[in-house]
Amino acid sequence: MTISSLTDTFTLNNGVKIPVIGFGTWQTPDGDVAYQSVLDALKAGYRHIDTAAAYGNEASVGRAIKDSGIPREELFVTSKLWNDSHSFEAAKIALDKSLQLLGLDYLDLYLIHWPNPLINRRNWDKANAETWRYMEDANTDGKIRAIGISNFQIEHVEALLKTATIAPMVNQLFVNPSDLEKDIVAFNNEHNILTEAYSPLGTGSLLEVPQINDIATKYNKSAAQVLVRWSLQHGFLPLPKSTHAERIEQNADVFDFALTDEEMTALDQLEGVAGTHQDASQADF
Ligand SMILES: NC(=O)c1ccc[n+]([C@@H]2O[C@H](COP(=O)([O-])OP(=O)(O)OC[C@H]3O[C@@H](n4cnc5c(N)ncnc54)[C@H](OP(=O)(O)O)[C@@H]3O)[C@@H](O)[C@H]2O)c1
Asked: Which residues bind substrate (predicted)?
C-alpha cells in the first residue's frame, strides 16, 4: 500500500479505518499545552489523536477537538483504560469518565493500557478477560468503534484470546529501531492485529543517533522524520508526540521521501542503541 498523506488509513480487522499517523500526548501537561498542541496537530492535518486516562489531559484534548471545528466523523480518537479499572464494572465507569472528559459520545479506539498491573499481577488473565467482556459490549453498542490492547506480550494476548469473542484490533507497543519487538510484532501480524508504534522517536532518545542523522541528511530531512518513515515502512502506525508547532508539522511531513531497503536494514540493526527497554509486562506499577 502506498501512503501519501495524513488522511490515508489502515483498515482494522473489523473494517474501521484508522489514519496512518497518530498524534501522541503522553507527558503533555493538561491545560494550555495539551489544548494548543492538539489544536496545532489538527491544524497541521493530523486526524488521529492518542490520549489516555493516565495522561490526565483528556479534558484539554477534548476542548481542542471541539474548538477545531472539524466534524467528529473525520477524527479518530483513542483513549486507554488505566490499571485501576480492570473489571467489567470498573471499565464501564472508566470509559464513561473518559468520554465525559473528552466531551465525546463515542471513542474510535479504546485500549487496555497495560496487561498486568501490580494491583492484579497474580490474576491478570482473569481481570483482563472480565475487562474485555465489557469492552466487547461497548464495541457492540457503538460506544467504541474499535477495541485493543497495549503493552501486551504474546502470553497476554494468548490468554485474552481464550475467552474473547471479539479479537483485538490493535496492540500498541514500544517499537522503534532500538527495540524491534520482533516476536510480538510477528504474532500481531499473524492475528491481523495492527501494531501501533509508541515512542517512535524513543521519547527523543534516538534523535542524536549518528546513523539516523546520516540518513536524514541524505534526504534533507530530520532524524524524527526518518524515524516516522521507518515505522510506516514497516507497516506500523507511529504516534509521534511534540508540544512544538514546527515539530508537530515536521513529524507529519514524511510523504515526499522513502527509505531504501538498505537503509531500513541499517536502521533495524540499531537494536539496543538507546538502551534496552524494560520488559513492559514487568513494569513496577
Ligand atoms: N501505550 C503506552 O503505554 C504508551 C507509552 C508511551 C507513549 N505512548 C504514546 O506514544 C506517544 C509518543 O511516544 P513518546 O511521547 O514516548 O515520545 P516520542 O514521540 O518518541 O518522542 C517525543 C519526544 O521527542 C521530542 N520531539 C518530537 N518531535 C521532535 C522533532 N521533530 N525534533 C526534535 N525533537 C522532537 C519531543 O519534544 P517536545 O514535545 O518538547 O517537542 C519529546 O521530547 C505518546 O505521546 C503516547 O501517545 C503510549
From this structure: 113
